[in-house]
Amino acid sequence: MKKMTKFALTSLAAGVAFAALTSTAQAQEQWTMTTTWPENLDLIKIDQHWAELVNQLAGDEVQINFRAGGTLMPGTEVFDATETGAIQASGDWPGYWAGLNPAFSPLATTTSLFNGVDYLNWIQQWGGFELYQEIYGQYNMVYLPYGITNNESGFMGRTPIESIADLEGKRLRLSGRDQGRVLEELGGSQVTLAGGEVYQAIERGVIDAGEFSTPGVDFNAGFAEVAEYWATPGWHQSASVFGVMINKDAWDALSEETQAKLKTAAEATMAWSLSWSERESTEATQKFIDAGVTINQFSEEDLARIQEITNDVIVRGACEDSDHAKVYHSMITYLQEYAAWRDVTAPFNMSRTMDNLPSLEEIEACL
Q: Is 139 within 8 Å of 96 (Cβ atoms)?
């Protein structure tokens, strides 16, 4: 009798355990995630970092099957695939979708405005996160910003660019609508190329110079092999944001606890990405120098002129689209408010000390 009771209890325990395992397996969401970045571009590491962290923190509730860019579909198709639910998530750079809505441009980067810390502050404390939800929400998506890099390398090529006067008549690979408008005002012409095509375009002389990302990414992409000159700083993208687009239905299927874990993973990845990219940029800059690349820096006068043109371009763009105006209004409001503390802490402050901003009043008139 005791043996039978023991057997019955053991069987019951096993049954309960099996039922629990079955319930967990059924409750676990299986997500397919891809990205705009192929395996050979270092920016994919930001996407991978978040996906791996989610699998560690919330692997019992949602499991992400991450696929490198181009293995499921072309990078240009990931937006539509995520919006429709063909896949649950995709890593991106918001600027790629500026043709759908110009507000995506400042959500991705700014010309001569934010640095990396500004984006971090604005996203987490000054309403930036909510604006990502508002813009991506128009396309049935939730957005978690999880990557920040500071200003990009600048222009690299076989033609020396020592000042903005040298931009006259030059064909430059440049990403972003506002960036292209500023370049045109400076006398250059924008050439749109995929990141993987910049190396060959410099090598073959299709462009006079080009840009893609931070020094770490650019060096690993082989730019030191084809470029002799490097014009810095990268005013055209003073910082960049990356993140994950999540299909709204897939997001809503998660519990609030699981959603919180995904947000936590995004915040942790954001902090990691900024320090990771700065370390890579530091090491890569020395590698470019060792490879014999000549670095030319724009003067303060040149940068001041770029700022003037940038301010005009921002106001003009704001008056063309209300979403665009709303994002820039929030950004400039942050810069004005932050200045009260930022400027009295110079030179130990964490943002740019600047007194020439786009007109908030003119932008407000366009809202």
A: no
Euclidean distance between CA atoms 269 and 274, whole angstroms: 9
DSSP states of 143-175: EEEEEEEEEE--EEESS---SGGGGTT-EEE--
Q: At residue 232, what are phi and psi to the nearest 5 degrees?
A: -135, 160
For 11, other C-beta atoms within 10 Å of its C-beta total 10
- Estimate the crossing angle of helix 300-318 against helix 322-342, to 10 degrees: 140
Q: One-letter amino acid identity for 223?
A: F
With contact defined as beta carbons under 8 Å apart, do 81 and 73 qualify? Answer: yes
Q: Which two tokens stand for residue 191?
A: 């050439």
Cα–Cα distance measured from residue 37 to residue 39, given in angstroms and rounded to the nearest whole number: 7
Cα–Cα distance measured from residue 162 to residue 28, given in angstroms and rounded to the nearest whole number: 56
> What are the residues facing 223 on neighbouring strands?
none
Which of the 8 DSSP states describes residue 109?
Answer: B
- Cα of first residue to Cα of last residue in the chain, in angstroms, is 82
- Give me the tens of pLDDT residue by residue for the chain, a chain 367 residues long: 444 444 333 443 344 344 334 444 444 899 999 999 999 899 999 999 999 999 999 999 999 999 999 999 999 999 999 999 999 999 999 999 999 999 999 999 999 999 999 999 999 999 999 999 999 999 999 999 999 999 999 999 999 999 999 999 999 999 888 999 999 999 999 998 887 889 999 999 999 999 999 999 999 999 999 999 999 999 999 999 999 999 999 999 999 999 999 999 999 999 999 999 999 999 999 999 999 999 999 999 999 999 999 999 999 999 999 999 999 999 999 999 999 999 999 999 988 888 899 999 999 988 8
Angle at 11 between CA 5 and CA 16, to 5 degrees: 125
Token pair for 158: 């076989």
Q: How far apart are CA 192 and CA 314, in angstroms?
A: 20
Give the pTM: 0.90
Backbone angles phi, psi at 264, to 5 degrees: -60, -45
